[in-house]
């Protein structure tokens, strides 16, 4: 499945072939039968996945989908080994997973500067100097280099946000992100304004902070691939805390929460074990009486927070609650 989103890229990779070994026989003016002195071929270049904390998306790879490493050089006379092919580094954000075309996980980048060889370069061939023996003192053959590897690699970025915003399209997630952080997500009054995840750093007390991820809106049926489907749900897996946003103009608050929770559980049952907080967004539209009515639609043990990004209502309280959940 090809994607136009920066969190999912398909690239074609080919490592370098190994250089051929040399079958050279030594010749010199006073040494008419110098024997074999062919050197080994050089190793082909690897394709190496490397974590880069300065990258946030896979967008750069959209424009370089064919990645090839250099071939190794052939061996030379006087047992000189050929130069190895130059390795190619594929820089990706932390949290990137590499899969083959069948969906098998090949590698996962979990920290900055971490390196994992995706495709090994071909081994260089042995020169004829390796094959001399008492019965074969002038071998005239050497090994060819081994071919490199080639594969189509699927790269997925799973965000490492501390708090993930969960809600239907138009729940006010992007507005909240822009109010709590310096991130500038696209905000508009229509569904799926957010097509790619946005990250923002929430500044907290005493110069502390945590990462808030505004993730593309979920819809009923997302676990079956409807709407943005798996593109949304993939990112939820790595958030420590889930903040459910339900807008104040919703018809049935508890039902909407149940639909969101159900989609998470159908995709991955472990998601419902994460710490979560429910916030009613756009609550500048509500008075105290209406807030109490909304509380009654939820079971008694549910804690609701009424917030408004526009009116800055309860945003400090929200940060306190999220911080406590992250560090309890």
Topology (SSEs and partners):
Layout (H helix, E strand, L loop, with lengths): L7 E7 L32 E5 L14 E3 L19 E5 L3 E4 L5 E4 L6 E5 L30 E8 L5 E4 L6 H8 L17 E6 L5 E6 L14 H8 L4 E7 L5 H15 L7 E7 L6 H9 L7 E3 L8 H13 L1
Parallel strand pairs: 1-3, 2-4, 9-11, 9-12, 12-13, 13-14
Antiparallel strand pairs: 1-8, 2-7, 5-6, 5-8, 10-11
CATH class of the largest domain, named Alpha Beta
Mean pLDDT: 83
The total count of helices amounts to 5
Q: Residue ranges: pLDDT <50 for 5 or more in a row?
A: 1-6, 185-195, 219-230
SS-based structural class?
A: alpha/beta
Shape: rod-shaped
How many E-type strands? 14
What's the number of structural domains? 2
Strand content: 15-25%
For the sheet with most strands, the description reads: 6 strands, mixed
Binding site for GTP: 167-174, 192-196, 214-217, 281-284, 308-310
Domain Obg: 3-160
Domain OBG-type G: 161-327
EC number: 3.6.5.-
Structural write-up:
With 328 residues, the protein is α/β, with parallel strands linked by helices. The protein folds into two domains: 1-157, GTP1/OBG domain (Spo0b-associated Gtp-binding Protein, Chain: A, Distorted Sandwich); 163-327, Rossmann fold (3-Layer(aba) Sandwich), CATH 3.40.50. It has five helices and 14 strands. It has a six-stranded mixed sheet with strand order 10-11-9-12-13-14, sandwiched between helices. Strands 3-1-8-5-6 form a five-stranded mixed sheet, covered by helices on one side. The protein has a three-stranded mixed sheet with strand order 4-2-7, with no helix packed on it. Strand 13 (275-281), helix 4 (288-296) and strand 14 form a beta-alpha-beta unit. It is rod-shaped and about 105 Å long. The chain starts with 7 loop residues before the first strand and ends with a helix. 41% of the residues are buried.
């Amino acid at each position: 499945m090809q994607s136009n989103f920066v969190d999912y890229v398909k690239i074609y990779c080919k490592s370098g072939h190994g250089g051929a070994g040399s079958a050279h026989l030594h010749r010199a003016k006073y040494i008419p039968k110098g024997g074999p002195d062919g050197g080994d071929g050089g190793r082909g270049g690897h394709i190496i996945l490397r974590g880069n904390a300065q990258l946030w998306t896979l967008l750069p790879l959209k424009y370089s989908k064919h990645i090839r490493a250099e071939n190794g050089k052939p061996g030379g006379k006087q047992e000189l080994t050929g130069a190895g092919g130059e390795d190619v580094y594929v820089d990706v954000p932390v949290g990137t997973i590499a899969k083959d075309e069948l969906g098998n996980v090949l590698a996962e980048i979990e920290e900055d500067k971490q390196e994992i060889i995706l495709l090994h370069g071909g081994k260089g061939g042995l020169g004829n100097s390796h094959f001399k023996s008492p019965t074969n003192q002038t071998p005239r053959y050497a090994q060819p280099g081994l071919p490199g590897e080639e594969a189509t690699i699927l790269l997925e970025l799973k965000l490492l946000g501390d708090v993930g915003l969960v809600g239907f399209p138009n729940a006010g997630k992007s507005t909240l992100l822009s109010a709590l952080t310096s991130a500038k997500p696209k905000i508009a009054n229509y569904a799926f304004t957010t097509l790619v995840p946005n990250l923002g750093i929430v500044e907290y007390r005493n110069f502390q902070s945590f990462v808030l991820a505004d993730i593309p809106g979920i819809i009923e049926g997302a676990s079956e691939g409807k709407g943005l489907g798996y593109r949304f749900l993939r990112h939820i897996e790595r958030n420590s805390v889930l903040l459910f946003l339900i807008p104040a103009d919703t018809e049935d608050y508890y039902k909407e929460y149940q639909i969101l929770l159900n989609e998470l559980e159908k995709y991955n049952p472990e998601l419902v074990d994460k710490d979560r907080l429910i916030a009613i967004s756009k609550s500048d539209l509500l008075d105290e009486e209406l807030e109490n009515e909304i509380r009654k639609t939820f079971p008694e043990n549910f804690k609701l927070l009424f917030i408004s990004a526009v009116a800055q209502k309860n945003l400090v309280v929200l940060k306190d609650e999220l911080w406590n959940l992250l560090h309890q």
